[in-house]
Amino acid sequence: MIRETLDLLMENFPVLIYAIVFIYGAVFGSFLNVCIYRIPAGESIVKTNSHCMTCGKKLHWYELVPIFSWIFLRGKCHGCKSKISAQYPLIETLNALLFVLCLFVKGLSIDMLLCQALMSALVVLSVIDARTKEIPNGINIFIAVIGIIRAVISVIPYIREHRFPLDAVLGPIVVAGVLLLILILSGGGAIGGGDVKLMAAAGLFLGCKSTVLALVIGCVAGSVIHLTLMAVKKVGRELAMGPYLSLGIAVAALWGNEITGWYLGKFF
Ligand SMILES: [Zn+2]
Known about the structure:
This protein has ten helices and no strands. The model has no long low-confidence stretch (mean pLDDT 85). It is an all-alpha fold. The protein folds into two domains: 1-108, no CATH class; 135-268, no CATH class. Helices cover 70% and strands 0% of the residues. The structure holds zinc ion.
């Protein structure tokens, strides 16, 4: 019944639905900006009063419209004229596009909502990890929780997609085990404890095969991009793996079944 209604909506009003998803993606994007600044500082993320980072002026509603406010204010605070980071509209736009992509790939469904929640968590942890070289525990816990929800609903007939909870349990064990081994053998140099926890949490969401895929994509992208950056921009050797693992996790969440199916299909 709900399924049919959603399909009917999607069939008849695709543009409207894409627009709604883009808008709530941008609105969540502004919340992500708050998380990105407040989580590393240890501040509460539910406190509501938004203010200018420089002069402390409280923001009016029309200064809080995602993406558009920044363009309308030409990137400057209305009160003190100090520059507002372009990161705000960029994160809002990125999150909106990721939400739309989840709709495109997953259709109007519960899995779409779970994937959108995952994408948002990955955006926040990537920016924080790139800045502070640390992945906040709270975000890993959040990913683990939505992963468990996804595993649980996968056994409910009618919304499941041929996944078994066993797969969700094996995912984190296999990948976190491998990473833990690397962590121990390298004496903590090659990979951080936060990365291990991230892959364990993502394993709950992705299941076994897709988690391995996420790790492979993350490591390949990380090595290629970081080596290029080291050569071109002379960045240091120290590598924040979070953004690259996030890329792998995002790709695996959206297309994991298709990619692993295609790859394994070549051999079996
Ligand atoms: Zn100001």
